[in-house]
Every structure is written in C-alpha cells, then in structure tokens.
Amino acid sequence: MDTAKTFDAYAVIGVIIPGSVIALMLALHWPEFAQFLGADGLSVGGFGLFIFAAFVLGHLIQAGGNILEYLIWAPTGMPTQWVRKGPGKFLTADQQTKLQERVVQIEPAVTSLTALTRTDWGRVVSRIYSSVHAASRSQRIDVFNRNYGLFRGLATAFLVSGVWLAFFTDASAVEAALPFILSLLAAFRMWRCARQYARALFVCFIDLPST
Description:
Blueprint: H1 3-6, H2 9-29, H3 31-37, H4 44-73, H5 79-82, H6 93-106, H7 118-134, H8 139-168, H9 173-206
C-alpha cells in the first residue's frame, strides 16, 4: 500500500496539532502524564506515545469544537448560508445572479435562494461542492476547510487549557490568561477561514464550464 496516497492531511492538521496542545499542557502540569511519556525525557518510544495521546485527545477536542462551532454560528449561520440573504457579504450582485442560475442547473426546483431553509440550502451546498470537486477545482477550497478545522481545534484546545490552568493548577494569572487570548485569536482565524471557504466555493462553482 502506498502510504503517500492514503495519507490524510487532516489527521495531522486538524486532529494531532490541537491534540498536541492538550498533551503538552498535561505533560507540563500533570506529573503522572509526564511519567507515562518517560521519566528521562521524551524518548523515541515516549514520542510515539505522545503522538498517540495527541491523536486521541485531538479527536475529543474536535468533538468540543463542534459545540464551539455551533455557538459561534448559531446567530447567523455559517458563511455558506449568507448568500441566502442576498449579495454584499462576499459576492457581488452579478455573482449572486450567476450563482442562482447555476444552482437551478443542478437543482431545478430551487427558484429562489432566499426561500430555502438552512437545512435545505445546506444540502444544495453539498451538491455545489461535489460539482466543484468532480471538476478537480476544489484544491484551494479544501485548504480553507483544513485550516478551518485546525483553528476550530486550536480555539477549543486553548480554551480547555485556559480553564485547566486557571482552576486546576497553581499557574500565575498571566500563564492562565495566555491560552484564553490564543483561543480568541484562533477563533478569529476560524471565522476568517469559513468566510474564505464560502467565497472560494461559490466563485469556483460560478466559473465552472457550462454543461
């Protein structure tokens, strides 16, 4: 089996990196966990255990990230939903019109984007991505998606680290505050990546060759 072809970049970018934040925090502030990795420093075997722990913790952190994601986007919906409210967010009026025309080609019943619910439009967006991916034009979109997952995980990991340091350790106020600041910065990057993803997806869809 060619591991290069089966390698999943998201496993590192979106799971292991956020999990490493938690694993490192535990190694520094939980002696039993540090002992688990190795009493004499991080050996080759200990590094393997660290990566394994980071992978497991990363998946758990991304579960928490789903909750954080819901809280962030509940008021407005994700950026892919914004086009239902008309142009202005990241599409021009002309692009909005072209988007409607292209959507009708794959979903003839959708005569108005604004008439759809969030759930129904979400299904249409999935078909839009499938069309772009089938045309081999989703590489840039996939980068934004992976970065979104990374920053969602980091925002959650730093938030959890801040809570741990503030309430369960004797860390100083500065040490406890730093993870919360980093969590806010990661959440902002998460917001930016979601917006860039939506714009790139719809512009690529609009520019697909007519069938």
